[in-house]
Amino acid sequence: MSDELNNQPLWTGDYYNQGTGPNDIFDTLKEECGVFGVYGHSGAASLSYYGLHALQHRGEESCGICVSDHTEFHYHRGMGLVKEVFDKETMATLTGDISIGHVRYSTSGSSHLGNAQPLVFRYRAGELALATNGNIVNAPQIRRELEEMGSIFQTTSDTEVLAHLIARSSKPLVEAAKEAFRRIVGGFAFMIMTNEQLIVASDPNGLRPLTMGRLGDAYIFTSETCALETIGAEIVRDVKPGELLVLDQNGLHEDFYTEPQRKALCSMEYIYFARPDSDMNGANLHSARKRMGSMMARESFIDADLVTGVPDSSISAAIGYAEQTGIPYELGMIKNKYTGRTFIQPSQELREQGVKMKLSAVRRVVEGKRVVMIDDSIVRGTTSRRIVNMLRDAGAIEVHVRITSPPFKNPCFYGIDTPDRRDLIASSKTVEEIRQEINADSLAFLSREGLIEAVGGDNKDDYKGGMCMACFDNDYPTQTDFGGEEQFGCGC
Known about the structure:
Blueprint: E1 4-5, E2 8-9, E3 34-39, H1 44-54, E4 62-68, E5 73-79, H2 82-85, H3 88-92, E6 98-104, E7 119-123, E8 126-136, H4 139-148, H5 159-168, H6 173-183, E9 186-193, E10 198-202, E11 211-215, E12 218-222, H7 225-231, E13 234-238, E14 243-248, E15 251-256, E16 265-266, H8 267-273, E17 279-280, E18 283-284, H9 285-299, E19 306-309, H10 315-325, E20 333-335, H11 348-352, E21 359-361, H12 363-366, E22 370-375, H13 382-393, E23 398-403, H14 431-438, E24 442-445, H15 448-455, E25 467-468, H16 470-473
Parallel strand pairs: 16-25, 19-22, 22-23, 23-24
Antiparallel strand pairs: 1-2, 3-6, 3-12, 4-5, 4-6, 7-8, 8-9, 9-10, 10-14, 11-12, 11-13, 14-15, 17-18, 20-21
Organism: Paenibacillus bovis
Pfam families: GATase_6 (PF13522)
Protein name: Amidophosphoribosyltransferase
């Protein structure tokens, strides 16, 4: 299915708004993936179902759950949302007290069931299941080496590289896993399961979020704390950079497979990806985003009649901007929550103005008003331009855009599906040129210093507030060049 808008096809996948190619009409950054693990609970599968449902915003393409009853694996994976893939009959077959689950976001070119996780393998020591959030930057290089030694890969997923490294080792599983983790470079939160063990590991920089919780005697691991709240578990702590945790019949074993490097949690988790009711590194994300909006107001005040945020990720920041300035916050835009996976081709009119499928302006609110529009980021600029024009069409007499992140100039190698650097508008245009491109009356971005101060949390005194800000400043915390084979986005 495709149509033309300025000679550009609106979409090329099997359904509307699938994929992340340069012609995707919504040029927002694509969510990462989400992982959820349980050890020691008889309802492990049910807990994983509800946990993955809470993490659904991190991936809508596919999902899966693998459960062990200490004798064999029971697992199910499918394309679609958690509620679409799992039903009562399927859940009844997933028996056991150890489980790992995964939600995967939509990518272009690798959208098929074979890449749905958890990946399940049989090797010399029995069954092995793996799930991850993130990206192994040197995966292509390692994959080529393994293939030259005879390995046969079944998927295009980075996760399978780790499985082959473990399987080829003659050491016991935990030592083989440590050895494998030391070989890979990137940002990742890994879960590895056997019939008796659950192994959880974070990359040496803690680029991808991973939190440990407790529910009675059971241990829970998740990408975001909102999933712990959903199942009534208590938060224990974040998994540390370079840490490897092993759970077996003797309890929890805490270890490190390498020396931790500088803490560098993805800054876009705070700005955009994670749910506002989640906590990361001691900072609640709703509160952090409100502070971003407040800091934005202090750095780039503009007089206006109302403040509105692009739903849903920018609402908290818009409230913060409004509170700081005294300008009323209004619901100037409404998000249609039911456009994500529709196979019905939109009408010709909506194809020509595709953003209206997802957002609509509240005319009676913005008409005749000077509007401050708060958003979290600008990627290519096409969506920002459409939203600004939509507000103007609804009668706004001025539209001032405030972005609660610095200009997004560089691709991510650690799990965010970003375009090529040449497609990032801030990589080649000044702020004034971007303002003209998106048809705004004024435009300002939050400074890096303002972002660090606004996030706060436990790592506020660390280098860059304990965040990776490479997408803004090109300062990557790991090596990224592996013979030109490195890849952007999420390799899981």
